[in-house]
Amino acid sequence: MQRGLKAREARLAFWMLLPTFSIVIAIVILPVIANFWIAFKPIQLGDLRPPRPAVRESVRSRPQAPGEALVVRYRVQNRTDNPITWARIVDALPPGLTPAELPQACRVQTAKIVCELPQGLEPKQTVNLTLRFTAGPAYFEAGAPYPRDTRPVVESKAPNPILARPFTLDNFRAVLTDPDFWPMLKVTLAYTIFGTVLSILLGLFAAQLLSPPFAGRQVLRGLFLFPYVAPVIAVAFTWVFLLDPFAGTINALLLKYGFVHDPIPFLSQRYWPVQFFGLTVQLPLALTMVILFEGWRYFPFAFLFILARLQAIPSELYEAARVDGAGIWASFRFVTLPQVVGILATLFLLRFIWTFNKFDDIFLLTGGAAGTETITIKVYDFAFARANLGQGAAQAVILFAILALFLVVYFRYAPKGEV
Q: Could you give the CA distance from residue 102 to residue 398 in angstroms, rounded to a whole number?
């Protein structure tokens, strides 16, 4: 009896959770499977739709009196690299026209012209269908309608390229042999690591700053959230305006107070020479700016989590540290840091994944120019700028593989009990 009850409860739980599982599969798993599928197919952006023939109608001869001929030609083209297995063109037939000469593929049926190509069209094939009619008095009584006043309706069948194309490794080969891939991977890792660490450090500093009680603390906490809650397009274009070499506020101040002699193109120059203890260092200028933007925009996310953890630390720990003679730095090192290391590890994991997948920030700031092209920018370039959807999907799969490797290493070496 008890086993039967448990079995019924298990079946009931399964049927109750089935809608949730179905939604997860439809929203998450199926797009991932589709991306992997396309990555192994030679697919262009235009192949998302099955090929359709293009039909152009032209009037070769138009009658001026009853008994004269009306000659119409349909030019049917397959402009794609994929075969069309069947096609049919249906057009309205003006009244008063009698068929005089029709190609084998065409017929007149209930005041309509029907042309059918049962063998379809090969890639890049063109078929010309010339139809000749004799005009009667009814044609002129109807006002001698122009045949091109009505558009032919085209129907066709063709195998879907996404399903029909063979599997291949050419997309991955093209991506991995691209001379820009490895430098781009280095840029992506630098942007991700430094942007993640900077946002967490700024969040930790802000949380430490706004954790003690003081007048106006709540107002400042709200202001510190502005970079994160503001629309990305607004803050990105604000930075673009501030860093503009000709009209930007930053360059205007630097020039006014004599820090520089010429405007600095912060977002459009790859390297900028910097003097450091007598040595000239080539600073990756544009990449540094997008990393600073990343840290500034997303430090409020870390700030909220760290602040919540700081407020949960028992005050007795700090009192005991002060009794033992610990100063501010010692209290932070031996009390605060051990208490927040868990949330810092979690923040690093989340921010690393999100930053590694970031597209909009860099795209709005630099468009991937001046040494700031990341893997996500390259995915966009392959899929939409070059219309090569297969290589774009392959690039996305490589992105997924790198993140999966990072997760394996992270969970393998992260402190136990912290993640």
A: 56
